[in-house]
């Protein structure tokens, strides 16, 4: 839509959607489709731009230190990784770089997969990956495994742009995360990771949004 804010605008978005009728008895937003989706989408786009800009403003050495703390939090949340397949991601636009932890999963007897965009508006697939495997450029030039049959992870770790108290994730707007979880034949443990500054009051969840099981930041 031409009236949507451009990337980088909306750092102080003046008027988020007023959906007070969608709050539960505790004041938390509940998933609804009655709200005007155009208003929600416009608000999410502005909030997404604001949060990504703030994330990129964190110095690289500080992000690296926070990633180490997130790795420790993942170990606490998952437990023994031996014999388990963990889906991670290749870091993009200031996301926590979990590649050292990825290697440690393999060293401890676990296996790793990376998500692959197959087609727009379709679920992701996961391909097994280990350091040294051949990569190719996927969507947005993010590296993906160049070959391999789809696998089903036991644990899905997804980076967040924002997250609310009900563990609803604000992502990049493509809808891949929710479509993928909805299509999986067996529910994995779903963990969102990011920085504490990415917590927000609500994402105005809709009925297609799927909350994560756990959130891990540098503080928890």
Description:
This protein is α/β, with parallel strands linked by helices. It has one domain (27-216): 3-Layer(aba) Sandwich (Rossmann fold). It contains 4 helices and 10 strands; from the N terminus they run ααβαβββββββαββ. Helix 3 links the parallel strand 1 and strand 2 (111-116). It starts with 36 loop residues before the first helix and ends with a strand. 32% of the residues are buried. Residues 1-21 have low confidence and may be disordered.
Fold blueprint:
Blueprint: H1 37-56, H2 60-78, E1 85-87, H3 99-107, E2 111-116, E3 125-129, E4 135-137, E5 143-145, E6 155-159, E7 162-163, E8 169-170, H4 176-183, E9 189-193, E10 214-216
Parallel strand pairs: 1-2, 1-6, 6-9, 9-10
Antiparallel strand pairs: 2-3, 4-5, 7-8
Descriptive key words:
six-stranded mixed beta sheet, alpha/beta, 25% helix, Rossmann fold, 220 residues
Name the assembly state: single chain
Task: Give the C-level CATH assignment.
Answer: Alpha Beta
Specify the biggest β-sheet.
6 strands, mixed
Residue share in β-strands: 15-25%
Question: How many domains would you count in the coordinates?
Answer: 1
Rg over CA atoms:
17 Å
Kindly state the percentage of residues in helix. 25-40%
Q: Classify the fold: give the CATH topology.
A: Rossmann fold
Query: Unreliable runs, pLDDT <50, ≥5 residues?
Result: 1-21
Which outline best applies?
Answer: globular
Q: Which class of secondary structure composition applies to the elements?
A: alpha/beta
Provide a compact summary of the structure.
By secondary structure, the chain is of the alpha/beta class. It is 25% helix and 17% strand. It has a single domain (27-216), classed as Rossmann fold.
